[in-house]
Amino acid sequence: MITDPRTPYPWINFLGCEEFFSILTNTAGGYSFYKDARLRRITRYRYNNVPVDDGGKYFYIHENGTVWSPGWKPVRRELDRYECRHGMGYSVITGELDQLEAEVLYMVPLGVHAEVQRVRLTNKSDRRRSFSLFSFVEWCLWDALDDASNFQRNFSTGQVEIAGSTIYHKTEYRERRDHYAFYTVNQEVAGYDSDREAFLGMYNGFDAPDAVMECRSRNSHAHGWSPIASHHLRIELDPGEEKSVVFLLGYVEVPAGEKFTARQVINKAPAEQLIKRFEDLGQVEAAFGELGGFWDGLLSVFQVEHPEKELMRSVNSWNQYQCMVTFNFSRSASFFESGIGRGMGFRDSNQDLIGFVHQVPERARERIIDIASTQFEDGGAYHQYQPLTKKGNDAVGSNFNDDPLWLILSTDEYIRETGDWGILDEQVPFDNDESNKASLFKHLGRSFQHVVNNLGPHGLPLIGRADWNDCLNLNCFSETPGESFQTTENREGGVAESVFIAGMFVLYGEVYVDICRRIGENRKAVEAAAHIAAMREVIDKHGWDGEWFVRAYDHFGEKVGSNECEEGKIFIESQGFCIMAGIGINDGRARKALDSVKERLDCEFGIVLNNPAFTRYIVKYGEISSYPEGYKENAGIFCHNNPWIMIAETLLGNGEAAWEYFRKICPPYLEEISDLHKTEPYVYAQMIAGKDAHKPGEAKNSWLTGTAAWNFYTISQFILGIRPHYDGLLIHPVIPASWKGYKVTRKFRGATYLIEVSNPDGVSSGVKEILLNGSRLQANLVPVCDPGSTNTVEVILGK
Ligand code: BGC
Ligand code: NOJ
Question: Which single residue of 169, 175, 319, 395 has CA 20 to 30 Å from 684?
């Protein structure tokens, strides 16, 4: 709940979890789109605007010359009370002035291509009130990039139609489009506008539209320029009376042969059907209830009860919610992703999956197949694919040599969650070519083999264009301003190698071996195990620097991330992944590396990516050194890989350190420092400025980041220690010794487990005893129980 509209940055929410989506700020800014934020943008939004966040789903109230907005913006008239509540798939923004309250519920109901806005007006005074309510949205001409650039054409194409209280946006419908949008209200209107300049006046902003200030709609029809939709309602309220009106912003597709009912008259039947579904308040109430039930269901799969309310707030709702949002949007549309840049990342989507597979396993299954379908025959991958076509996006290139291995992670986590080994038999195309398919299991084999087939001079994996760190561009050698660091490879046949991929290869390679064994592919298992053993030796020989793991070898065979380097002596990624792969755990190197992380990378706000930060551009390293010190990949706190260090600490049984790192970047714990942190204190940001930055602790790029999935994965599976396993739930908490205990409700393969962990001896890890429904288990694996059953699991930690 936000009670001051002047947040340090717009604090947003995402509405919709299927095909129709909206982004909404706490002051009602934002936009809507269907499936693809670039290609099917429904309402317009200007990124990079001044003032920031201008334009959105606005309402205006005009009462006797006083004009205000329930969300404070755009009018910015001081309110007696303001409140914004962001919830799971909905937001409620309420303003009150002079005892008139206006509460707007925004939501995208399930199974519907529309945003519902319910405006509830309450007269809290003892006099009769009579006032006007104006609505406002601005249409986008569908392709958001074209809309923001091709003015010579677009100023002449805009078209609308108006029927009753519904304003239809039908630009380009006359030619090849078979979709239109509409904005309607379930009341008769006193007037309307559909032409922006007629509504605003040529030289006004959204804060003072002529039509609103003069309380008189122009009844304008847009022809070209900028089509909008605004309704004018006259409202009368007795003392104490409350009245609600329902607005609907919808999108419909019409079969090609049925587009028109007469020349120039669009077929409105599909819109009318949709409108009928939200005509009365009961229908809206029911849809809202259904949405709540849907989210309760999703979140009920994992719920923790713990003395720390911040932990509960994050784990039980917002972290899981953010995982779902990253699943839906990948890195496409937020307040830092303009919706016109990126599609679905191969590595990103595989990682996002580990954060939500427990919530919607069927959708995870579909996603795995979609991703694998873009894989090349040699195991390599397009770096990205487009959500609308599900095809690989050539423009963003390939040869990011970590990409293929992430498919093993996602598939494995899916099988652990569901026990659905059948997914491995699914026939999946290469590069979306239906005539060239192989089983998903074979795809995983290709992923593994891709590393084996691409080894460098030290026997380490070749890095290609980059590995997880998109900015470590060791073959790029770019001297040309503006050239893409990710898709340019000026040194052909590059020999640069990645120790990070080596660790990853051992970690997920072993997962692959396990899978092979379990499905009886023993020969493959033995072969793969030999490659892994060889890689371990190479890491021992060339991947250890003395106090930590080396990061990479550059084009000239020189170490990157070594004490020998002048800057960038140590990097976080190879520490995380080598230790997660178990390397150095038995011989003290892992502890040493983690101590180096603590000493050199950790700071008040989290663990930075590298140290010392690069203070100049180093052509052989690429984009990493292009960022000023402390930002992004150059020594920013890249929250995404902090959990790797948390997991590494848990593998050494160090619950205090894991928890301390967790707490440092966990959003609810940062609420206190919101003025510094700036972004929403309920979701993770991709990056927090590091210790070398101008303003350490200031976050950017909130919402769409792999941080969401990795943190949920870490807290649920490695700290609270409830890890899905092929044959049940593995229980292995690693926590601060001072924790007395906690409870987790976990739904798993149709059964419910009520898990109670107690820590009478004050240990950090070590399970002394587990009782399943009162009977003692021999190992810390809780077997799969009957579907529909509810089971108690008592876990007693101790020495
Ligand atoms: C960013 C990376 C991102 C890459 C690819 C870079 O500018 O720093 O975080 O992965 O662009 O979009
Ligand atoms: C963000 C990208 O989406 C992700 O794929 C990459 O791993 C990180 N940046 C680090 O560069």
Answer: 395
CA 405 to ligand 2 center in whole angstroms: 15
Q: Work out whether the CA dihedral 639, 640, 646, 648 comes out positive or negative.
A: negative
In degrees and rounded to multiples of 5, residue 266 shows phi and psi of: -75, 155
- Which pair of structure tokens corresponds to residue 161? 């139609």
How far apart CA 47 and CA 54 sit, in angstroms, is 9
DSSP string, 58-71: EEEEEETTEEE-TT
Distances (CA, A) of 284 to 56, 116, 291: 22, 8, 11
Question: Which pLDDT belongs to residue 493?
Answer: 74
User: What is the rounded CA–CA span in Å between residue 642 and residue 666?
Assistant: 11
- What is the pLDDT at residue 99? 98
CA distance 287 to 26: 22
Q: 8 burial class (0-12, 13-18, 19+ CB within 10 angstroms)?
A: middle
792: its two tokens:
């108690």
CA neighbor of 42 nearest in space, from 26, 60, 58, 23:
23
- Whole-number Å distance, alpha carbon 682 to ligand 1 midpoint, is 23
Alpha-carbon dihedral sign for residues 477, 480, 485, 488 = negative
pLDDT at 343: 80
Q: What does the alpha-carbon distance between residue 427 and residue 441 come to, in Å, rounded to a whole number?
A: 9
* Strand 160-163 to 166-169 pairing: antiparallel
Q: From CA 681, how far away is CA 670, in angstroms rounded?
A: 6
Residue 237: name the closest of 315, 86, 132 by CA. 132
Q: Is the CB of 469 under 6 A from ligand 1?
A: no
Residue partners of 520: CB distance under 8 A and separation at least 6: none
For ligand 2, whether the C-beta of 553 sits within 6 Å is no
The pLDDT of residue 492 is 75
- What is 247-292 written as a DSSP string? EEEEEEE--GGGSEEETTEE--HHHHHHHHTTSSHHHHHHHHHHHH
What integer pLDDT is reported at residue 488 of this predicted model? 85
Prediction pTM value:
0.97
Q: Is the CB of 486 under 6 A from ligand 1?
A: yes
Find residue 757's DSSP bridge partners.
742, 795
- The separation between CA 569 and the C-alpha centre of its own chain, rounded to angstroms, equals 31
**Which of the following is catalytic: 470, 554, 602, 692?**
470
Q: What is the DSSP letter of 699?
A: E
Which parts of the chain sit beneath pLDDT 70? none
Q: Are 624 and 630 in contact (CB under 8 A)?
A: no
Tokens of 260: 């028109």
For residue 159, CA distances in Å to 227, 251, 280, 603 come to: 7, 15, 29, 55
**pLDDT confidence of residue 386:** 81
42, 173, 619 from 180: Cα distances, Å: 9, 7, 49
Rounded CA separation 702/336 (Å): 7
726 burial via Cβ count (<10 Å: 0-12, 13-18, 19+): middle
- Residue 207 a catalytic site member: no
Amino acid at 455: L
